[in-house]
Amino acid sequence: MRKIDIFDTTLRDGEQSAGINLNTAEKLEIARQLERLGVTVMEAGFPAASPGDQDAVRKIAGTVKNSIVTGLARCNQKDIDAAWEALRVAEQPHIHIFLATSPIHMAYKLKKTPEEVIEASVEAVKYAKKFFPLVQWSAEDGSRTEPDFLARIVTEVVKAGATTVNIPDTVGYATPQDYGAIFKFLKETVPNIDRVKLSAHCHDDLGMATANTLAAIENGADQVEGTINAIGERAGNVGLEEVAVALHIRKDHYNVETGINLKEIKRTSQLVSQLTGVAIQPNKAVTGKNAFAHESGIHQDGMLKNPNTYEIITPELIGDAHTELVLGKHSGRHAFKTRAEEMGFTLEPERLNEAFAEFKKLADRKKVITEADLLVILTDQQIQE
Ligand code: KIV
Ligand code: ZN
């Protein structure tokens, strides 16, 4: 089965979310958990950005042994030197250098010609290769780059010695069809492309990050990048928990493996939420509080007869406690009776009908029916038996 490397950037792109600031101890704790999760590569920070980030990357590089640790750098010697200072202690030193390649970024942000962008990228890759055995180069805003230029610059960085080439959808603009086509095109056009890993990096501005990442895999990507809980710049990066679970559940379709220890997903998600202070939306795929909660009577009845009716992922798969049948105004008698029995009440049919009617009346007035509410209703009926 084809192996897809998982590149986690929670500690770099994820930390770039507005309002998130992790200190070294917090970064280390997340890094240890990412190692348990089984990510192939973790991007620990941007060493040239601040002494604090450089220190955090150094500590993580010296601690983590089972995942490759990397740091971000622009295409200049100062950034690459700062990254080397932090990463020289790593088991397999890896650097991630990037430069923008789209017309708008080259003209307005970099004020460089396409030729100058090629030259700066090639020089940076060659310089980085003096220190690092593993050099990833990224074409920032790659999905909005003119395809022939993208193929030319990728050809040059591969010749210069890059070991991974990443094509980010930096502003989340691509559709799955667009993004998949870029990978297919590069695979068909760039000489020796099979000597390097091709990587996908998706942002979620139009809500298509997961679909785009999966499209890249279908079209030859060897590595996918993202964050835990989909945190990141603006609308965030792709959520790695979604990608890993989608690839597992739809193995029949994708036929790849990631090496991710799925049982660590819930724990990782909770740790990242707790330390970043960013709550997980209740209906978030895979890790949201409601991902395994069923409220309507028809669904609850189906779940009680056979969980496969409404649950394609089991909570145990991601290390979550259990499925929850939430009692609310849409719930049915079957779930109500089951809960009553779990609470130790086996009522006569007539009393159960009464209790169910009382429960429905209360559910019309109250959004959340608590255990205490149920206890009052059921005890009332038990007394009358
Ligand atoms: O989104 C992006 O383009 C990035 C690069 C730095 C790789 O995060
Ligand atoms: Zn990014």
Description:
- There is one protein chain.
- This protein is an alpha/beta fold.
- The protein contains 16 helices and 12 strands.
- An 8-stranded parallel barrel has the order 2-3-4-5-6-7-8-9, surrounded by 7 helices.
- β4, α4 (about 75-85) and β5 form a beta-alpha-beta unit.
Overall 3D geometry?
elongated
Query: How much beta, percentage-wise?
Result: 5-15%
So what's the oligomer here?
A: single chain
Order of strands, main sheet, comes to 2-3-4-5-6-7-8-9
Heteromolecules bound: 3-methyl-2-oxobutanoic acid, zinc ion
- For the residues shown, what is the average pLDDT? 97
Q: How many β-strand stretches?
A: 12
Order of helices and strands: EEHHEHEHEHHEHEHEHEHHEHEHEHHH
GO molecular function, one term: manganese ion binding
Subunit structure: Homodimer.
Keywords: Acyltransferase, Amino-acid biosynthesis, Branched-chain amino acid biosynthesis, Cytoplasm, Leucine biosynthesis, Manganese, Metal-binding, Transferase
Family: Belongs to the alpha-IPM synthase/homocitrate synthase family. LeuA type 1 subfamily.
